[in-house]
Amino acid sequence: MMSLTPHYGRRDSSMPINKTAGALINSVLLVFAVTAPSLAADTEQMIRDAVAYHDQAEYQQAIDLLREVVRLEPDNGFAAYELAYSHQANGDLKDCAKVAGRARRKIRNDEAQAELLPQLSMIQASCYSQAGDTRKALKTFEKALQVSPGDFWLHFNISITLANVGRLDEAIDHLETAIRINPWHPSPYYAIGSTYYESNQPVNAFLAYANFLQREFNTERCVNASRWMIDVMFSRIENDKANDSTTILLPRSPDMSSPEIAALDLALGLAAMTNAPDEKGTALDAGPIADSIARFISIAGEMKYDSDPDSFFVQHLVSGARNIEAEGVGTAFSYFVTSVAGVEGATEWLESHDAETDALVSYLESLAIQDAE
Q1: Which of 62, 159, 185, 368 has the smallest number of Cβ neighbours within 10 A?
Q2: How far apart (Å, rounded) are the C-alpha atoms in residues 113 and 93?
């Protein structure tokens, strides 16, 4: 069973998720921007001080200051959000939900603070979820989505709660919606890759991780994603040395509604089988792994998807492979994946192939520019 524990914050940052034998995902750091309304000078400074206390993990000091702001300005939704957030960080989940819920009721007819409503709903639902009250969490999310159906973070965060209770198909639906709303943000690709993996959809998982690694660099999540890509590929191969045979393990329930995905399931296994070690447990160096990754990305990027060319799979998963192929950086990207995963020899390859590495860096930088725009 996949376990996701959301923790909400103010700023974008790396969001580590740890994979264990019993749980693919144990924790996610979710973030979104909160814009402060116009505040009186004294309360504005109090909120800045409270944020500083929070950032130093001095949560009770932050709570005390923010309580005073809310007492002085009962309709200040931003201060209430910050107070709920500090309660959450301090483990005061009931207080977090109570503060957020009260603030939502106070500002629901205040157009100047309308943008805070989905954010207050998210933190309230998060605290319900962390407290184990999934019913209230989902009810809060669903009500918020009725009002703000195009809110990226609502779709992203409800997916975490749904995944925690094993409703993986619904979680995937919301993650796909989040990606359609904002195809540049790395987090939903990371989360959907793990959910696909848990749902026994290896091709989708592999491509989702590849898309994530084109959008985020140098974080613990990148290490996890790159290792999971390798695991998705090579865990499908079983060698029987005694009988001199190799078996490709296909998904228990392949997506037969798409002949292309069924073909890619086989291609993923064949790409790995070409370079799989003769004995289970034998470590591979970077060359064979990178070659297998590059081979599969090339197949996925060049395949024609006539059955449903406008599907989410084609438009938002395969697109990453197509872009890599179009830029001619498949080999460098594959060594980048193996390097981030810590495979011996990968970093040395990147350092000794300046032209290929520079082309990859330029391509990844161009994606970052598009994200910023």
Answers
A1: 368
A2: 24
Question: What are the tokens at 334?
Answer: 């594959």
* 238: β partners: 247
pLDDT band at 331, cuts 50/70/90? very high
Which of 264, 266, 257 minimizes the C-alpha distance to 298? 264
Cα dihedral value 296, 301, 302, 307, nearest 10: 110
Residues in the chain, overall count: 373
The token pair at 277 is 């070690």
pLDDT 10s digits, 36-80: 544 455 899 999 999 999 999 999 999 999 999 999 999 999 999
9 and 31 Cβ atoms separated by less than 8 Å:
yes
Token pair for residue 188? 């939903």
pLDDT of residue 68: 95
312 vs 261: CA distance, rounded Å: 12
CA distances from 115 to 33, 171, 268, 331 (A): 11, 24, 44, 44
Alpha helices in 17-133 (DSSP H): 41-55, 59-72, 77-89, 93-107, 116-130
Task: Give the separation between CA 92 and CA 185, rounded to whole angstroms.
Answer: 30
Report the number of secondary-structure helices (H) and strands (E) in the chain.
Answer: 18, 4
Q: 287 φ, ψ to 5°?
A: -55, -55
Largest CA-CA distance found in the chain, in angstroms, rounded: 78
- Residue 179, Cβ density class (10 Å: 0-12 exposed, 13-18 middle, ≥19 buried): buried
Cβ atoms within 10 Å, residue 108: 13
Strands 28-31 and 6-9: parallel
